[in-house]
Amino acid sequence: MHLHTFYSDGTYSPQDLVREAKKAGLSAIAVTDHDTVEALELSVAAGDEFAIEVISGIELSCDYAGSEIHMLGYFIDCKNKELLDKLYGLKKNRIERIHKIVSKLNDMGLKLNVESVLDFARYGTVGRLHVARALLKDKLVGSLQEAFQRFIGDKGPAYVCGFKLDPAEAINLIKKAGGIPVLAHPYTIGNDELIVEFKNLGLMGLEVYYPEHSQSMINFYLGLARELGLLVTGGSDCHGQAKSEAKIGSVMLAYEFVEKLKKAKRVL
What we know:
The protein has helices at residues 14-23, 40-50, 81-107, 114-120, 128-137, 144-152, 167-176, 193-200, 215-228, 256-266, and strands at 28-31, 53-64, 67-74, 180-183, 205-209, 231-234. By secondary structure, the protein is an alpha/beta fold. It has a domain at 14-88 and 164-266: TIM Barrel (Alpha-Beta Barrel).
């Protein structure tokens, strides 16, 4: 329930993503590209072809006190005008952010061109994973992990946040588009008290099952979700070959989790 296509920073086309999901034995998936809905119609059509239920989703990038927060939205209306207008602005912000990141890298002696980064994002929104892939292609780093750890990770010297949404805006935007807002990979925030704050802002779910969540984290977030009355979701966060360790099907949930999301949507 957390998959990406090449319309954001994955490497699979919508058709290939659904095909891989079929091979993995999945019956339902959510396509949740970063700050774009461009892949959704093709993904749903591919789902019909391969007899897989495709949930229309998104992963909105937010700025909260200088930290990056990701908000998932499930069962959104991908033609909602307010959502589309906001995504157009976010796309421009992402391009500006890449220019700033590349400028910082250049100042550090890494001679990377903005065009090299944008080439990797030719289908849709551009992000840090595209920067990492461009650095790797130009042999400026030895791996994608090195790019993040040394340069563009959240604490890296070339990191730039630059997003114009805050969590409250993202939650409201998802709800106005008929969707269910869920906090993605909460361990990355480093402050679990914020989950209570986001709940008070209208957050409806928590991504409990995630490849980088240890069993103790899963147990903790399950307990917190129950305590706060939040829905539980999970997913591999698959980006295809761009994040080859996160494979489709590596995180599998029972279909009852989808049913609970559908039930919640019916009463929105």
